Target: Ribulose-phosphate 3-epimerase
Amino acid sequence: MLINPSILSADFANLERDLQAIASADHAHVDVMDQHFVPNLTIGLPVVRRLAQVSPLPLDVHLMVEDADRWAPQYAEAGAASVTFHAEATQAPVRLARELRAGGVRAAVALRPATPVEPFLDLLAEVDMILVMTVEPGFGGQAFIEGTLAKVRRARAAVDAAGAATWIQVDGGVSRDTIGRIARAGANVFVAGSAVYGAADPAQEIAALRALAERPTTQA
Ligand code: DX5
Ligand code: ZN
Model:
């Protein structure tokens, strides 16, 4: 079970300090938005390059940008450990994933809530992770979309049936209230932005989320 806090909810004037605050997590989740694929604009290559140099954690870069075929490989070069592109923003997901892997990073494909996972279930060997978006991408602090859990379950069943090592990540509305049932549905990588950075003690929140993911009860 991996906990990847999203620095979208960090203080953008203090990113290095706020990366240190989550050093007990597994990766730092970095949301790159281009104001076209999503109606929000965050950071791009020059900032990600510097974050990779100062971060105590490997970077899990989530690209919410159009023309992923053009831009994603440059984030591999910028120092990301993992690069996630959106299925809706690429012409050739397999070619792109292969290019990313050849660049030495983990390659992942992200699905908006209304994008089916089925087209990718025969291609699990081509990607290191599937990101099931549990909100519409673009903003932190949105409510978890319950209907996305069925997609997580189908993805987990396919990964297990194939004996694949593909990680299943969820992003959006992950909190103490939702993480247990998301874990039971089969996710193993949890992105949390507002839950971690909105907490008085981010390290304590990471530990609490990890405990709930590892020991999901049958309730909630
Ligand atoms: C949303 C981003 C998320 C965001 C999640 O488009 O991809 O990573 O930071 O924020 P929370 O955890 O607050 O829902
Ligand atoms: Zn994200």
Remarks:
- The chain is about 35% helix and 20% strand.
